[in-house]
Design brief:
Distance between the termini: 58 Å
Shape: globular
Number of helices: 19
Oligomer: single chain
Number of strands: 9
Helix content: 40-55%
Largest sheet: 5 strands, parallel
């Protein structure tokens, strides 16, 4: 058995380690499997013998773990040593991080090597922008619904500090490409301006880091770090709703950056004026620059997206198949990609080529299992309307009986009707932690056992939410 050196002696980056893993994996799995399931995986971070990789969704993890767990384990141990450990980061579920005591895999296509930007003297060697390099303008499909947002984003990326688009505020529904677009700006900036400090993070992560800074008495250090950025990119800014202290700090960081001419880029599910529960002075500042929306893609754009993504997976689909999928999957880009992944899975499971019959079956499965479009905000609105409680009250530290009841029931239904994590649900209710959500859930469940009428009422309310959101 060959001697395996430590990764510190062999690999200076996760990309190098992953590339070595891919060489081994490529010789052990079928070509279609390799292209479909291992090529889309991206290496993120290498710490000792722990490798973090990013996958498009949880289905990837389940499929790979079920069918190629042994291959992965053996490969990563060969490359990184017996103590090697793999952590999955799910791209479409920011709150879900799954840690596996397994090994890593990842591939960087030889024809498209990852390019690195060497840090300059004013950027610490360990600085991480947290930008995903696969999010680029080249891979962002232009359509009727995103023309303004895309054009403005490119302008900022090409002409940093020379546009009036500051802040640049992008809004739209789930899965329409907001995260892709705002990260593409950051990637373009660091390519054209290697000396600029660009950082990307979600609003909920910003909140978590702020709480940790308070607990460790490092608030000034935390604030100064973000004030030192040349470009600050915050995703899902709506998660600051109900978090007054976090909003106050972000207000000062925003002012400092804006007054210094630094670029601020934000995304949200709603336009600034509709962010109820957010401080008015923040809403006002969010409208200082350019606000642009992203609409669901039209048929032609959906076809173009499917064609691009299928090419990325190494498969070729004819126009009849592409148009059939595009006609039947209409809600967002993420669901289009999910359909392609499911199609690849069905093809692998049945050991058959992708034909029209397989496509029709896959689309039918997706349509049958498609969850209702139910959001935590919609659940909260419905519950508060019944109890005649202001929605903002359930996000505050309000202990009035009717407010507590509405808050607990909204948390309970959010856990039942959405795929959101406990952490995400808690963030929607004033930044409460997961234990509060668990307590609310258990309280409602316990009351069911004592009050049959209350259970019937909740079942009826749940049915109403599901019906109206479907």
């Amino acid at each position: 058995m060959r001697e395996v050196l430590t990764n510190k002696e062999l690999y200076s980056s996760p990309h190098e380690a992953w590339k070595e893993c891919l060489k081994l994996i490529k010789s052990k799995v079928p070509f279609l499997t390799y292209n479909s399931w291992f090529l889309p995986i991206k290496p993120v971070k290498l710490s000792g013998t722990t490798l973090k990789i990013e996958v498009p969704n949880s289905f990837f993890i389940e499929w790979i773990d079920e069918h190629y767990n042994t291959v992965i384990n053996d490969t990563i141990k060969d490359v990184l040593g017996e103590d090697a450990r793999l952590i999955y980061l799910i791209l479409d579920g920011k709150d879900d991080t799954i840690e596996e005591e397994v090994e890593e895999i990842q591939e960087v296509p030889e024809e498209e090597p990852v390019s690195y930007v060497e840090p300059t003297n004013n950027i610490p060697p360990d600085f991480n922008s947290y930008l995903n390099p696969r999010y680029s303008f080249d891979s962002f499909i232009k359509g009727e619904g995103n023309q303004l947002a895309r054009a403005a984003a490119i302008s900022i990326g090409e002409n940093l500090h020379k546009t009036s688009f500051n802040p640049f505020f992008v809004y739209g529904g789930v899965g329409l490409g907001k995260t892709h677009l705002i990260q593409a700006v950051g990637n373009r900036i660091i390519t054209k301006h290697p000396g600029k400090k660009v950082i990307y993070l979600s609003a909920d992560l910003f909140t978590v880091e702020f709480v940790e800074a308070i607990q460790s008495n490092k608030v000034n250090e935390f604030s100064n770090f973000y004030k030192s950025m040349d470009v600050l990119i915050i995703d899902d800014i709506q998660f600051l709703i109900g978090k007054e202290k976090t909003q106050d700090l972000f207000f000062h960081i925003f002012n400092t950056l804006h007054q210094s001419g630094k670029q601020i880029i934000l995304s949200s599910d709603k336009p600034p004026k509709d962010l109820k529960g957010l401080n008015e002075r923040l809403i006002s500042r969010f409208q200082w620059g350019l606000t642009a929306d992203i609409q669901p893609p039209d048929l032609e754009t959906r076809v173009a997206i499917l064609k691009k993504k299928s090419e990325n997976y190494g498969i070729s689909l004819n126009n009849e198949i592409l148009e059939y999928i595009a006609h039947n999957i209409t809600s967002n880009i993420r669901e289009l990609e999910g359909c392609l992944i499911k199609l690849l899975a069905n093809s692998s499971f049945s050991s058959r080529d992708i034909d029209f019959e397989l496509v029709k079956r896959t689309v039918k499965e997706i349509s049958t299992n498609r969850p209702a479009n139910i959001s935590i905000d919609y659940i909260t609105k419905t519950v508060c309307e019944y109890y005649k409680v202001d929605e903002n009250k359930v996000r505050e530290k309000n202990r009035k009986k009717e407010v507590v009841r509405a808050r607990q029931l909204a948390m309970y239904l959010s856990k039942k009707l959405t795929k959101s994590s406990l952490k995400t649900i808690g963030l929607h209710f004033g930044g409460r932690d997961h234990s509060t959500v668990i307590h609310a859930y258990n309280s409602v469940e316990n009351e069911f056992m004592q009050d049959e009428q209350f259970k019937e009422f909740v079942d009826g309310l749940r049915s109403k939410i599901e019906f109206n959101a479907s």
